[in-house]
Amino acid sequence: MSFLRRPTWFAVALTVAGVLVFVRLGMWQLDRASEKEDLLRRYAAAASAGVEDFGLIPEVPPPDRYPRLELRGHYVEGHEYLLDDQSHGGQVGMHVYVPFAAKGHDRDLLVDLGFLPKEGGATPRLPPLPVGETTLRGLYVPPPGVGVRLGGDRLPEQKGPQKTMVYVDLKEIGADLGHGLYPRVLLLDADPASLYARDWTPAVMPPARHRAYAFQWFTFALVALVIFVLLHRKRR
Hints:
Structural class: alpha+beta
Radius of gyration: 25 Å
Strand content: 25-35%
Strand order of the largest sheet: 1-3-4-7-5
Distance between the termini: 15 Å
Order of helices and strands: HEEEEEEHEH
């Protein structure tokens, strides 16, 4: 490389280390993209799979397994939990959660009825729940991630049957109900006759964004090499 001045060992070490780190981060993002694609495939397959007996599956299935259940029982009246600041199809609204007492089981299961848009920025009017015994079908999945807790739900301080949440914490909801809940929630199957939108996909970063980040890291590696060459190019 006669067109380059002799670089210092520090410059070489710094450039090599930077390139290796950037390439490794890019490969990690590509691996994450593959994992997310696999997750989305499993989720889609579970949504169209046959139903399973709730009593025959583990209370906490493997993280990558989403059993589709059929349960008979009744909704627990007087308890509606509204997850605020949600979006669907460009609309802002809420996801509505209601506890369900399944026959033959000793705890309630929290059910996500789906998404309702807000009405002029206000809490939407909730459709009435089925009265008496009913049959539900849906995916048994982990609750949505909590993220950063700012202020908390403060469920005990809220009065009335409808309580607003900023995150879903099954322990807090169980404490508000006065008894424990199962560690997962039920996402109801889509129903064209329902006012609730039920377009279930995992709340994860899409694979395309991981690939975009990978491209960014690979670009940084290339830029580091270009800077090294420019700084050590012989001047005429």
